[in-house]
Amino acid sequence: MDELGKYLYCIIRCHEERSFDVTPMASEGSMVHTVCCNGLAAVVSDSLAKQYEGTRRNMMAHERVLEAVMQELTLLPVRFGTGTDSSSPIDDIQKLLAKRFEEFDALLKDMEGKVELSLKAFWHDEKAIFEEIMADNADIRRLRNSLAGKSPEATHFDRIRLGEMVKQALGHKRANEAAKILLPFRRLAYKTQENEVMVDRMVVNAAFLVGKSREPEFDGAARQLDEDMGKRVALRYFGPVPPYNFVSIVVNWNELK
After folding, report:
1. 222 and 121 in a common domain
2. Is residue 49 very low, low, confident or very high in pLDDT (cuts 50, 70, 90)?
3. The whole model's pTM is what?
4. Is residue 246 assigned to a domain?
């Protein structure tokens, strides 16, 4: 009879089998537990599924396990949706830990004593920002004024050009403002990861790898930024969270065969 598969959450240091009191991704009845090899372990749960859809429910379940584990241990997140694909899941996981021991060991050393903190910043008033762009850029202002009262059909290409000019100017304004916002946080972090902004209002979408001892300083910098720019920029500051932006273990089981 085939064994149940295993769903992988993260890699930790662990010399013996243990379990974690947190609800697993799947509902096959097993607890979240470890599969160990040479002082490393994969945190896993039993699973019948080969793949999981990237639904909010599934992703939150995955994240809950990582957050529970990180309360006790340094971890390396495994990419969401990673499950074993053979009838010998424990053997496969132990082969993975053995083959990539040096890589995992080095990454765990690098993540030791560090956490990820995240910051998102949004302009409060998008309309006011566009008005600033018009006030600061004579070429954009002239082109906009020249289109007044003319039909969209007759000015189609000029309107496209205006949109491109505004977009470029918005990018420059965002970059300048983001640099000012990020500066005090960069000084406190080991690493900074700037991620894509999702909407025009978003100025900063960044993650920081920070020593645990510096969390209070980081919190203070966030409070100071909110005090200094609260009327212009809305902040979303959160963490600590697993270091998703700085390490993500991707598993290719075919490499172990």
Report:
1. yes
2. low
3. 0.85
4. no
